[in-house]
Recover the amino acids of this structure.
């Protein structure tokens, strides 16, 4: 009964939404408003070789991304507070030899690919968050196959508090550096190409490593 | 062609959204409610990314071999931010559910309601 009522409600909601979708500009046509406003400006002003998605993420909408890394950091804090006491650890699983061997085999290549994605993200497909997802997935994969202790071994204990906050800290540093060199918070100095590159890579590394540590910690907080 | 068929991609995301909404309302298991919320989020992300497409367009990465028109980079950047926020809310929701399960031994909303 409850299920049918809910299904009827969802169907009822879908009808005006589908009608609205039919009234939208034709999908894939280049004269939609989404392509004719700021997006055109971003594409016209684009540097020689750049990933425009990362450009928008770190440069034009740097404040958004700053907020986003703070949000995920806050989520980690909330999860750790909720899961603080009285947990009993699960017994470590015993993986089949094939699964164990394959996971051990791919782990270094996985990590290498993650760092490639993070470091080349400002001019090729990739970026900090994508690399963070790959690195975090690597830790999760090891944790699922070999048990949470193995996943915990990936995280350096002493640097952990700093690594968890690496995303917001890197953004803060880039924001202050940009403020000194260009006069705008989170401005990237175009007249100092080396510093410009270093700031982009630094922010990407901060988001990538900080995000990966946060994803791993979220998983470990749920697990044990 | 009718406008509904031309915008079939948008219609598909709407249907996915409503499936998520239905799961969110109808299921009494709290984990499945979180899953329904995630399906709704995915549908919204798919809708926003789809809106940035251009027929025959290139990925918005400049360099040798890249040709205009580019797809709009803004929806991609927005959705990337959105995905991270979705992950954060899901993590907090799951941690809360683990706490509820530890305190009450169940995740069924009807059983929980009986205990209040």
């Amino acid at each position: 009964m409850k299920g049918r009522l809910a299904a009827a409600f969802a169907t009822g909601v879908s009808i005006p939404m589908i009608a609205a979708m039919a009234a939208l500009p034709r999908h894939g046509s280049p004269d939609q408003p989404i392509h004719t406003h700021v997006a055109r400006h971003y594409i016209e002003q684009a540097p020689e070789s750049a990933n425009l998605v990362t450009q928008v993420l770190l440069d034009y909408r740097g404040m958004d991304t700053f907020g986003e890394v703070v949000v995920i950091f806050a989520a980690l804090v909330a999860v750790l507070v909720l899961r603080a006491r009285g947990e009993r650890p699960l017994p470590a699983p015993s993986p089949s030899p094939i699964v164990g061997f394959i996971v051990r085999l791919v782990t270094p290549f996985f990590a290498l690919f993650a760092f490639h994605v993070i470091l080349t993200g400002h001019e090729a497909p990739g970026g900090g968050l994508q690399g963070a997802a790959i690195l975090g997935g690597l830790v999760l994969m090891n944790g699922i196959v070999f048990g949470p202790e193995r996943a915990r071994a990936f995280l350096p204990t002493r640097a952990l508090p700093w690594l968890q906050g690496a995303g917001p800290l890197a953004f803060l540093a880039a924001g202050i550096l940009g403020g000194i060199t260009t006069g705008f918070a989170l401005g990237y100095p175009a007249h100092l190409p080396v510093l410009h590159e270093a700031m982009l890579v630094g922010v990407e590394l901060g988001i990538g490593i900080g995000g990966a540590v946060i994803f791993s910690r979220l998983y470990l907080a749920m697990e044990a | 062609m009718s406008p509904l068929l031309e915008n079939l991609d948008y219609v598909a995301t709407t249907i996915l959204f409503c499936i998520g909404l239905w799961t969110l309302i109808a299921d009494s298991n709290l984990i499945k409610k979180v899953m329904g919320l995630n399906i709704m989020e995915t549908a919204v992300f798919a809708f926003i990314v789809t809106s940035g497409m251009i027929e025959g367009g290139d990925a918005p990465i400049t360099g040798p071999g890249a040709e205009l028109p580019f797809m709009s980079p803004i929806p991609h950047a927005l959705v990337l931010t959105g995905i991270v926020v979705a992950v954060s809310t899901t993590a907090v929701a799951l941690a809360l559910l683990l706490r509820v399960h530890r305190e009450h031994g169940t995740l069924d909303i009807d059983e929980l309601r009986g205990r209040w």
